[in-house]
Amino acid sequence: MKLYCLSGHPTLPCNVLKFKSTTIMLDCGLDTTSVLNFLPLPLVHSPRLSKLPGWVSKDGTVNLEKELKECAGRVFVDSQPEFCLPERELLDLSTIDVILISNYHCMMALPYITEHTGFTGTVYATEPTLQIGRLLMEELVNFMERVPKAQSATCWKNKEIQRMLPGPLKDAVDVWTWKRCYSMQEVNSALSKVQLVGYSQKVELFGAVQISPLSSGYSLGSSNWIIQSHHEKVSYVSGSSLLTTHPQPMDQSSLKNSDVLILTGLTQMPTANPDGMLGEFCSNLAMTIRAGGNVLVPCYSSGVIYDLLECLYQFIESASLGTTPFYFISPVANSSLEFSQIFAEWLCHNKQTKVYLPEPPFPHAELIQTNKLKHYPSIHGDFSSEFRQPCVVFTGHPSLRFGDVVHFMELWGKSSLNTIIFTEPDFSYLDALAPYQPLAMKCVYCPIDTRLNFHQVSKLLKEVQPVHVVCPEQYTQPPLTQSHRSDLMLELQPPPMPYRRCSVLNLPFRRRYERVYILPELANSLVPSEIKPGISVATVSAVLHSKDNKHTLQSTNVFLPCLVLAPKPLLSGAVPLEAFLATLQKHGITEVKVEETADGHILHLQAEDTLIQLEEDGTHIVCDNNEPLRTTLRDLVLRFLQKL
Amino acid sequence: MPEIKVTPLGAGQDVGRSCILVSIGGKNIMLDCGMHMGYNDDRRFPDFSYITQNGRLTDFLDCVIISHFHLDHCGALPYMSEMVGYDGPIYMTHPTKAICPILLEDFRKITVDKKGETNFFTSQMIKDCMKKVIPLNLHQTVQVDDELEIKAYYAGHVLGAAMVHIKVGSESVVYTGDYNMTPDRHLGAAWIDKCRPDILISESTYATTIRDSKRCRERDFLKKVHETIERGGKVLIPVFALGRAQELCILLETFWERMNLKAPIYFSTGLTEKANHYYKLFITWTNQKIRKTFVQRNMFEFKHIKAFDRSYADNPGPMVVFATPGMLHAGQSLQIFKKWAGNEKNMVIMPGYCVQGTIGHKILNGQRKLEMEGRATSVTLCCPLAPIKLQIVLDVKLQVEYMSFSAHADAKGIMQLIRMAEPRNMVLVHGEAVKMEFLKGKIEQEFNCYMPANGETITVTTNPSVPVDISLNLLKREMALGGPLPDPKKPRTMHGTLIMKENSLKLVSSEQALKELGLNEHQLRFTCRVQLQDPHSDPDTLHRIYTHLKSVLKGYTIQHLPDGTVMVESIVIKVSSSAEDTNTKVLLLSWSYQVKYFQCSYLTDGLYRD
C-alpha cells in the first residue's frame, strides 16, 4: 500500500492511495495562496492601481515594467491571478479510479484533475459538498471572467529572472506549473463525474474495497472517509470539527480500529479560539458602525458566513444595530443562502428540530425577510441604487485579489472610520493587504477556524487508537514563528509518518487475510473435528472461483473428480503404544515384539516380518512389498492421529 | 437451514393498517404500523397480541421501520409504542419524522375531540413516541446492532417515502412501502440497487392496472376544472394535506399561468399551508426539475393559490378549493361539500382512493342521496322543517369526478422494480386479494410469490454461503497455480484447513494450521524393501537406477543426491547390498504418508520395467 502526496498544503490536501489494486485520490485541494503574488483585479478602473510603477532591477539590466508592478516596497505580477495546482507529474492521473471529496473547500482543483488528463473514474461527494462546491467554483470563474485581463505574464517566471526578484516572489516554487482559472464548461464537466453519497453509505469499489463517508462536523456535508476491505482499514480524516456550529456532529467512533489514519486539515489558527474571535468580530463591528464607519468582511460565500449571520442575528438587537444595512454580495449569494436551508439531514440536531416545525433552520431567512440582510450578485445593478452607508458588507474573495471586495477596498481604504475584519484563516492578512498600502482603514484580524486543534486531535487519536498515523510534515514540528510551543505539534507513539509535496510513502502494513465465501453445498459437506476445546478443524478441498475480486469455494464433485485429486492432509498427535497394540490384536496381529528405544518403541510384527517404529512425532512402517498389509497398518495408525 | 419468516398483521390481502413482521437471522423487525381508515373498532389497529399476549413488545422486536407518513402506515405507532409498550428504536426518514406527528395529532383530534372516543392515544403519547424515532438518511447504512443493518432507498409516492433493505449476514429482505416508478410533477421515481434480496415485499395496490399515461390524466383533469370554471361553477378537490395536494397545486398553478385565468384557487388553511413549507425545506426529496430550479423559482411558492377562509365558500362566482380531508369523512372538505352539493354547476373531483363507509366512497359509487347528521345549513334540504340536530338527507346534484392521481406502482412498475432488485422470492401485500392473484400468476413464471393473509406466516428457506477468512498466502498460491490469468472454464482447486474458533472461520494451509494451533506434526513414513540382482557396486547400482528412472519417468523431478540417495519427487531410494550376497541388492524405498499413491505405483512400475 502506497500514498502519493500531491499537495504540500496541510489544509488543502491532495493524496493518492493505492490499496488492493485500486487507486483512490483523497481530496483535490487547490492552493490559492499563490494569488497573493498578483495585483488585484478591480471591477471598475482604478487610477491608483494603474499608476503603480513598473519593476526594473536595481542595475537596470532587467526591465519587466509591463509584467511587474511595485507597491509599498512589494512587487506584484500584473496578470490574471494563477493557482498552484496539485502535483501532476508524480503519477499518471488517468490511472485514478475514484476521487473522494471531503468538503467543498477541498475540491477546488477538481477540474484540473478530471479534465484533459485522461481521467475516466468517478468522484464521490455528498450532496451539500457538490452543490456548495459548485457555487464556490462558479463564483471563482465569475470573479475571473467578468474582469478579463488580456495579459498573461510569463517572463518573470524565467528562472534567471525570478532569482533576481525581491521576496516573496523570488521564493515562490514551481511557478511554471501555476495555472489560470478553469472555465465554467470545465467545471460542469468535472462535476458531472460526481456520484452522490450519504453519510455511512457503503460503496463497493470493484469488489475489492469499500468506501464510506462519515460526518466530520466541519461544514455542510463535510466528511471523513473510511476505506476498508474485510481485514484492513484506512481512515482519512480531513477538515473535522468538534465545535457545535451548524453541521451534523463529527462521527468519531467509526474511526476506531484503523490500521492507518491519514490526518489532514487541522486548524490553521491553533492559538485563536473561535468563540473569542466571534466575540471580537461583533464588538469591532459594532464599534465601527457606531462611529459612523463601514465594515468590510472578506469571506467565502458559504461556511463560516452562516455562523457569522446567526451570531449577528442575536447580536443586532442587543447592540441596537437594527437599522444598519447588512449586504452580502456575491454572484452566488442568493443560491448559497437558499441552499443552506434545504439540507436538514446534514445539520446539527437543533437545526433539524427547527425544520420539523417547519421553520427554516438558519435565522438568515428572517434577516432577509425583515430586510436587515440584503444580497446582490454584484456591486452593479440594484446594489448601486439601494446602497446606504454606514453599512456592513460581506463579500469575496478573502485573498482581496479579485471579486467585489477589491472595489470596497479602493472605496473605503482611505478613511480611518472604516474597518476591515478578516475572518477567513486561509490568507495572511498582511499579505492580503499589501497591494493596498498605504491604508488608512482599520484592520482587525479575527480568524475563525473551527477545525480540530492539537489538543482535540491528540484526544481523538487516543480514543480511536490507529496503528499508524500519517500527516503533513507541518504537524510534526511547532510552527516556525512559535518554535517553543511543543503543544502545537503532534506527539504520538509511534511517531506519525510525515509527508510533504511529492512524497511517496510505503504504508507499513501487510495484508494477511482475504474474504472467501464457501457455497452452501460445500459447507454442508465439511466434517469438522474438535481438536482442542472450542476449536475445530476441517480439511477443505474445493474449486476456487474468483470474479470481480470476489472469491467463492465450490464443491469439487461438480467437476470431473480426476482434475482435483486432493493431497493428503498433514497429521498431528501421537500413537499410544498400549492402545495401538490392542488395536493390532483386534485385527489378528498378535505376534508383536516390543523393543524400547531412546525416542519410543519399535514393534516387530514377527509373522508379517514388518517393523513399526513408534515415536512421539513420527511413525515409520517398514514392510516389504505387501500392499494390503501396508494399507491396513496405515489405516490403523491414522485412527490415532488428527488430520489437518 | 436458515429461514426468513414474514407475517402480515395488517395489509395482508388488504389495503390499510400496514404492519408486517419479518424474522430474519434471529432478528424480528416490524415494518410499518398503520391504522385502517375503514374501521372504528378494534380492527382499526393491527393485532399486536399476535406478537405477545402479555405486555410490552420491546423484548420481541429489534426495531420498527416506518416507510412513509400516510396514516395507514404509521397511524398505530403511538398506540403500539405507548399503549401496548415498545421502547426500542423506530426508524423513519427525516421528512416522515417531521410530518408524521402532525398527521397523527390531526387524526387524534378528529377521533377524540370530534367523535368523542376514549381509550385513544394522547398528544403526549405522540410526543413520547416520536422521541424514540431515529431519523434515516437515504442510502445510509444504519447498523441497528452488530448484525442487523438497514438501508433506505427513495420510493417516490409521497415526500420522504422510503423503501428499506434489511440485512443480516448474507440474508436480506426489501420492503417497498408504497412506491411509484414514474416521476410525477413533484416527486422522482423509486430506485433501488441490484441488491438481490431473498424476499421482496411489495405493495400491490394497482396490481392489475397498467395505467394510461400521466399526461392524459392531467389533461383530463385540467379540462374538467377549466370547463367548470368557464360555466361559473365551483370546483372542490378533497385532498390529504400532503402529497397529491402539492402535485395538483403545481399542475393548476402552471395551467393558470399559461391560460392567464383569473378565477381564484384556494387551499384550506392550516395543514396545507404548512405542508407547502415542508416541501420547501425538504426540496432535496422532490424531483430533479424542482430541485434544479428552486433557487430561481421555488415551485412550492404559489402565486395563484391563496389561503382559504370559510366565508369564501359563499362567495359568488367560480373558484377552485383544495380542502382536507381527502375522503370527505369530516372537516372542512365535508363542510364545503355540503354547501356546494346542491348546485349542478359545481364539481367535486376525488383525486385518490376512498375507503368504504366514507362519503367519498358513497358518492363515487353513484349514491345521489346522502343521509347525514348535521345542523341546518344553506344546502338544499328535502325536509325544510328539520330540527337543529337531525338526520338530514343531502341531495347530491354537483358533478362527481374520480381521477386517480395516487402514486402507486402499477403492474408494469412492480415488474420494473423486480428487474431492478432481482429478488429470489416475492411477497405481495397492500392490495386486494383478487388483484394480487393476477400479478402472482405473472411473477410465479419466474420465481416463488406469496400473498399471505393477515396473521398468516410464510417461510422462505435461504441458503447463504459462509464467509471465511482465507490466508492471503494460500489464496495467492492457489491463484498462481491457475496461471497468470484466471480462466472461468478452468476451475482451480484449493486445499486447506478450516479452523473454527469461537465465531471466527479461518482457512489456512495445513502447515499454517499446525503452527497456529500449536500442534506438532506427526510424520508417517513407509519403507519398502525391494530385492534386486545386480553385480555392480552400490553406487553404480544407484546410478543405473537413476538413469533408468530418468528415461522411463518423464515429467517427474528425479535427483541424484550426493549423500547416496535418489529422489523421485519426494520418494527416497537407497541401495544396500545384502550381507551374504553382494550381488543381491536391497532397494529401500521410503515415502511419507502425504505422497500421492499413484506416484508410488509409477515408481514401482518404472523400477520393474526392464
UniProtKB/TrEMBL annotation, chain A:
Q: Which organism is it from?
A: Lates calcarifer
Gene3D superfamilies linked: 3.40.50.10890, Ribonuclease Z/Hydroxyacylglutathione hydrolase-like
Protein's UniProt name? Integrator complex subunit 9
> Where does it reside?
Cytoplasm; Nucleus
Task: Report the superkingdom from the record.
Answer: Eukaryota
Q: Which GO terms describe its biological process?
A: negative regulation of transmembrane receptor protein serine/threonine kinase signaling pathway; regulation of cellular response to growth factor stimulus; RNA polymerase II transcription initiation surveillance; snRNA 3'-end processing
Q: Which gene encodes it?
A: INTS9
Stated family: Belongs to the metallo-beta-lactamase superfamily. RNA-metabolizing metallo-beta-lactamase-like family. INTS9 subfamily.
Q: Which residue numbers delimit the Beta-Casp domain?
A: 305-433
Any one cellular-component term (Gene Ontology): cytosol
Q: Which UniProt keywords apply?
A: Cytoplasm, Nucleus
Q: Which SMART domains match?
A: Beta-Casp
Do you know which InterPro entries this protein is assigned to? Beta_Casp, Integrator_9su, IntS9-like_C, Metallo-B-lactamas, RibonucZ/Hydroxyglut_hydro
UniProtKB/TrEMBL annotation, chain B:
Principal subcellular localisation of the protein: cytoplasm
A GO molecular-function annotation: hydrolase activity
Give GO BP annotations, semicolon-separated.
Answer: snRNA processing
- What are the GO cellular component annotations? cytoplasm; nucleus
- Any Pfam family: Lactamase_B_6
Q: Where in the cell is it found?
A: Cytoplasm; Nucleus
* Entries under InterPro entries matching the protein: Beta_Casp (IPR022712), INTS11-like_MBL-fold (IPR041897), IntS11_C (IPR048662), MBL (IPR050698), Metallo-B-lactamas (IPR001279), RibonucZ/Hydroxyglut_hydro (IPR036866), RMMBL (IPR011108)
> Which residue numbers delimit the Beta-Casp domain?
245-363
Keyword Ubl conjugation, does the record have it? Answer: no
Keywords, ordered alphabetically: Cytoplasm, Hydrolase, Metal-binding, Nucleus, Zinc
Keyword Nucleus listed? The answer is yes
Q: Which cofactor does it need?
A: Zn(2+)
User: Where in this chain does the record put each Metallo-beta-lactamase domain?
Assistant: 16-210
Output the superkingdom of the source species. Answer: Eukaryota
Q: Which family does it belong to?
A: Belongs to the metallo-beta-lactamase superfamily. RNA-metabolizing metallo-beta-lactamase-like family. INTS11 subfamily.
State what protein this is by name. Integrator complex subunit 11
Q: What's the source species' lineage?
A: Eukaryota, Metazoa, Chordata, Craniata, Vertebrata
